[in-house]
Write a structure and sequence with these properties.
This protein is α/β, with parallel strands linked by helices and 490 residues long. Helix content is 34%, strand content 21%.
């Protein structure tokens, strides 16, 4: 069959590999000049940055694609970080969470006064929850009974009391831990899918499993190595890529996909897989479809972000690859600017410095900083006014923590805000992950990986099931492929 993939984000790339591997004629259309979606490469002067995700977890999902193609996964070079994050608090308290489990427990005990055994049990529970839930909620469709009604479901249901469905992430963490700082550390994982720890169900505390129990990794050639490697796999399987060609409409007749129209031509296709934000897919590519799933599309959107990419003159040994700066008791310096508590209600500043030892990222004696502030989505705010104000607050905060005037050290700067995200990556209102997960039923409200109205239309990426992040985006492609096989009996 002739298959069109709309968008070369990680989900679209995974779908390209899977469909091409099955012998289908696959063409990937990408409006931008690169594969990877939000995972991009930024070069300013002597500095290089990875744009988009900065944390790499779940390498086994990339390994699946290599094995599917009969390729050697050892050629995908990556390494595990010895430390996950450095944490900085307003009272001057700072420490590092190491990868080694015993040292990790030592840190929670000595730095935060937590009961070692309790933390260990908490981490073990999150691991067991993830392993029970993943096969049902992450690796299968929630919208088809034959996917859900399996032995794996009953295994997951057997742990139902452990998920704490009646509590929020914050409520469970606040009850578990003595120190409010520990609660902040575990609450911040809600930002990994753009949600609020005060609203998201406690079940999502399992998100930290991949980071704290398994580990944090970095590809040796930067995060852009991920999409470039998957693109190479797809091309090796026969997929064709058309960059700088924006899809403008998905075409159908009698509730069946027949092709698509781009900025350059009209094409015939049997199957279309959309990696574009699902809300934008319906609004922009299917404008005449009267059966768009309004309940799913009208859910609360995930957060957006303001990101500063700075080339810094100077060296900061106190900073590692990943650093998190917190505010007091969730009272953010940015609340009065955004006039909202929907910044995930976790007003942390996230400073990411890529590997300082890599000459291609920053020259000797200099560093490349990725500084991310969670922000509301774009609902008409004056971002030209807000961004400089956010920058000023954040510079004061970092200068105080690091005891240096950071503003005087900035040699290069690039800014990404919700308007940029909306325009460049077609994220509805600048939302990074589509729908937020701010209620216990959020997983079921996510759009399925297939269309219930148009035969031959499928959906992948972070805005549909199972959700945000590289591992989940890759799983969305696997699920879409399984649904296709069932629909067309191939």
């Amino acid at each position: 069959m002739k298959v069109a993939i709309v968008g070369a984000g990680v989900g679209g790339l995974g779908a390209a590999v899977r469909f091409a591997n099955q012998g289908h004629d696959v063409t990937v259309f990408e409006a931008n000049s690169h594969a990877g979606g939000k995972i991009n490469n930024l070069q300013l002067g002597e500095f290089r940055w990875d744009m988009g995700p900065s944390v790499f977890t779940g390498p086994e999902y990339i390994k699946q694609l290599y094995e599917l193609c009969g390729e050697d996964f050892s050629t995908f070079e990556y390494f595990e970080l010895e430390n996950s994050f450095n944490y900085f608090f307003p009272d001057g308290h700072r420490f590092t969470l190491p990868k080694n489990k015993e040292k990790l427990l030592d840190t929670f005990e000595k730095e935060l006064g937590e009961n070692r055994s309790l933390v260990q049990k908490y981490l073990e529970k999150s691991g067991k929850n993830y392993k029970s839930i993943a096969p049902v909620f992450i690796e299968s469709s929630l919208h088809r009974l034959n996917h859900v009604l399996t032995k794996k479901l009953f295994k997951a249901l057997a742990r139902l009391p452990k998920y704490k469905l009646s509590k929020t992430m914050n409520e469970e963490n606040k009850l578990k831990f003595r120190n409010p700082k520990t609660t902040q550390i575990f609450n911040r994982y809600s930002t990994y899918n753009g949600s609020s720890p005060f609203k998201a169900p406690a079940m999502l505390n399992m998100i930290q499993h991949l980071e704290m129990n398994v580990g944090v990794f970095l590809p040796k050639k930067g995060m852009v190595q991920i999409p470039r490697s998957i693109q190479k796999l797809a091309e090796g399987q026969g997929a064709t890529f058309k960059f700088n060609e924006k899809v403008e409409e998905i075409l159908y007749e009698k509730k069946k996909i027949i092709g698509l129209r781009t900025s350059k031509d009209t094409y015939d296709f049997d199957i279309v897989v959309s990696n574009m934000d699902v809300a934008f897919t319906y609004k922009n590519l299917l404008p005449y479809l009267k059966t768009a799933p309004k309940k799913s599309l009208n859910q609360e959107k995930s957060t957006s972000a303001i990101v500063f990419y700075w080339g810094i003159k100077g060296s900061f040994p106190e900073l590692g690859v990943h650093n998190m700066f917190f505010s007091d008791d969730y009272e953010s310096e940015f609340d009065h600017l955004f006039k909202t508590k929907t910044i995930s209600e976790d007003p942390s500043i996230y400073v990411h410095i890529t590997s300082k030892k890599k000459q291609e990222d920053a020259p000797e004696g200099k560093e490349n900083w990725f500084v991310m502030i969670n922000s509301p989505i774009n609902v008409g705010q004056d971002w030209e006014k807000l961004v400089p104000q956010v920058k000023n607050i954040m510079l004061k905060k970092l200068s105080k923590h690091l005891d240096r005037d950071i503003s005087a050290l900035i040699e290069e700067e690039f800014v990404m805000d919700p308007v940029f995200i909306e325009k460049t990556y077609s994220g509805a209102q600048g939302s990074i992950y589509g729908n937020a997960s701010n209620n216990k039923y959020a997983a079921f409200y996510r759009h399925p990986n297939f269309s219930k109205d148009l035969k031959g239309l499928y959906f992948v990426g972070v805005t549909v099931h199972p959700g945000g992040g590289i591992p989940l985006a890759l799983n969305s492609a696997k699920i879409a492929m399984e649904c296709f096989k069932e629909d067309f009996k191939v």
